[in-house]
Design goal:
Layout lengths: L1 H6 L1 H40 L12 H5 L7 H14 L4 H39 L2 H7 L7 H20 L7 H19 L2 H22 L14 H19 L2
Helix pairs in contact: 4-5, 7-8, 7-10, 8-9, 8-10, 9-10
């Protein structure tokens, strides 16, 4: 039998080559597994060294972030940023910190919204409980949109600046007339009554002129420019009353 195997090379050679090939493949597979384990081992060791957030399972978001229940938004933001920096790399810790922060942020937003609603309700209740003459007075007042307020404020501020620039040449009679016409125009747009608009505008001008005539002489002359006359300063006060009249009255 031994002699047959030795004398028959065609039979023994494929068998031996197959065994050698299998052994080589097994060795390569074992080397690949060992290399993968070696590559994975240090990574696991690094992740294991990342500190874990100790309050990760604390239910109260204030206690989880380590702040008091009366903490401001700045303190909440500061605690969140500090903890995220301290426990960066630990996924569960970061998720726990972010969840507590979002919960407090949402609670703060809802509280501001509720406070705003309560303030409106209280103001409305105060108006309803006020005396009749106050209710009648408030019926003449309205709050226009912000852009309308700023446009009219810019117009009357321009008239005031124009009057100051021309104070050395003459009085502000022309600027006052233009401001009165603008006030009547704006009031007519709201009231749809030219007579009512002219009455309110003229009353605003007269009230402002009288108040200016009383207040301006009380101002120390050291604060005023030599070219600023009593008429000019009184007209500036009148512009303020014209602005208030055409913007907030109806």
């Amino acid at each position: 039998m031994i002699a047959f195997s030795i004398s028959s090379p065609n039979f023994s050679t494929p068998f031996l080559s197959q065994k050698l090939s299998s052994a080589t493949n097994s060795k390569k597979a074992m080397n690949s597994v060992a290399a993968a384990a070696a590559a994975k081992g240090p990574r696991c060791a690094v992740e294991g060294n990342v500190p874990k957030f100790p309050r990760i399972n604390v239910w109260d978001p204030y206690k989880r972030l380590g702040i008091s229940s009366s903490a401001s938004e700045e303190e909440i933001w500061g605690s969140r940023n500090f903890l995220l920096q301290q426990y960066a790399g630990h996924e569960r810790s970061e998720e726990s910190i972010e969840a507590a922060f979002e919960k407090l942020l949402m609670a703060s937003f809802q509280l501001r919204k509720k406070t705003k609603i309560n303030l409106k309700s209280r103001l409305k209740k105060k108006v309803e409980e006020s005396p009749p003459w106050i209710k009648n007075l408030l019926n003449f007042v309205e709050l226009p949109p912000t852009d309308v307020i700023f446009r009219r404020l810019f117009l009357f501020a321009f008239m005031g600046g124009w009057s100051i620039m021309n104070s050395a040449e003459g009085g502000p009679a022309f600027q006052v007339a233009v401001s009165l016409a603008a006030c009547v125009y704006f009031l007519n747009e709201k009231t749809k009554s030219l007579g009512r608009a002219f009455t309110i505008g003229l009353a605003s001008l007269v009230t402002g002129w009288v108040c200016g005539s009383i207040v301006v002489p009380m101002v120390p002359t050291a604060l005023l420019q030599p070219t600023w006359t009593l008429e000019l300063l009184t007209s500036l006060v009148a512009y303020v009353f014209l602005f208030l009249g055409c913007t907030f009255l109806k």
